[in-house]
Prior knowledge:
By secondary structure, this protein is an all-alpha fold. Helices cover about 75% and strands about 0% of the residues. The longest helix is centred in the first third of the chain and has 42 residues, at about 5-45.
Amino acid sequence: MPVPIEVRYKQAFVQLRFASALSFRIFAGWGAVYAALAALFAWMQSSTMMNSFTWAVPLLGLGATLLFWLGDIRNRPGINAAKSVGAAIEADPASEIPELQRYFSRLNQGVRHGVTINAFAIVMLVLLGIATVSLIPG
């Protein structure tokens, strides 16, 4: 039993919404971890006993950055698959979607989500690496 094209098109939107929401949650968690690490760093700086171990905070940030970045990379195929399915449906003449009303086929215009996340992660890895090395006593 074939699935009507309208149902497939709606399902592509649902899949894109789900994958995009997951991506947002990953990025929000990333920011929350950075905020927690900033509070930990401030607390360690104010404590004379812990001051010499502040180098561990950016090191933890480095690990968190790698984990969240990998989580985002793992989620990207879901976003790309939903976009590809939607664009293929729009390109199908049976869909009868006018070219100016196509949504999925326009999503690849501009800077992609993955490029921005990659740039952010690389900059943060470099900065956190420099902070770790500069805070190591000795």
